[in-house]
Amino acid sequence: MSESGEDNLIARYFRPLAKTAGALELRDDAAVLAATSGDLVVTTDAIVEGVHYLATDPPDTIARKALRVNLSDLAAKGATPVGFLLTLALREAGESWLSTFAAALGDDADAFGCPLLGGDTVSTPGPVMISIAAFGRVASGRMVKRSTARPGDLVAVTGTIGDATLGLDVLRGGRAAAAVAADASAAAYLVDRYRVPRPRLSLAKAIGNCASAAMDVSDGLAGDFAKLCAASGVSAVIDLPKVPLSDAARAVLAAGATTIEALISGGDDYEIVCTLAEPSWNELAKLAAGAGVPAAIIGAIVEGEAPPVFRDGSGCAVTLSRASFSHF
To answer: Is 0.90 surpassed by the pTM of this model?
Structure first.
């Protein structure tokens, strides 16, 4: 019997990505991960056309975003990637789109040491959806949780905040687009930050060794950090002037085309926010510098269960109209 269209699609585009023995060349109903003495960390995220990316975005950037948003979660847990499952819901099996998508996905799978293990392909009359479940490993009992921040801990964040939400605004022709209209490199930088996240896997081991609690910033720094505080039963004081911003974001802010509130609540940053004791910060800062990843202290954990307080340059509390992106 000849292969079905779905079998042919898998064989043509995705079997070449299944390079680990446990994937069984995508010819079985399941994959096999070798048992170890450590713990297996599992995370999943889906990206949907029109919600997480634009229909006009290039297929290679869509592929990279789909995998990297999951790798960002693993990095925040201190985990090393071991593989992923892919589910694709497609309106059509177009050669140009699929070949470009699969090539970029394979490149990232190789670059991050996270091979394809299996998955599913289905048709849909609605928007395209890409769902990935990623697996990582940590030493037994060493996954970094949200629920273990302690009063007295410092609060640190990697990278820069707010670039991605500005990149989306640039693509939509919003106020940010006008603010960087004369600076093509700034506009390109912001768009790239929206389309292609930077999972901080180079710091995963450091996060595992240094952080008392951590999570990735996907829906907005303000809202995601509030979730960490709630899970830990603590509060915090965050100094907004200390939140790290890129030169491009500062230019948009200086032009009055955005606000600091919009930058810390916009989402799609895929940086890591973590808490740690002061002696551990020195170690993390050194390792981050060695990995070429910026990291900054933005506040501290305090006792109590109130939401985190965000202070302006004068030390006054800032009331946020929204803390993060929400699907519902």
So the answer is: yes
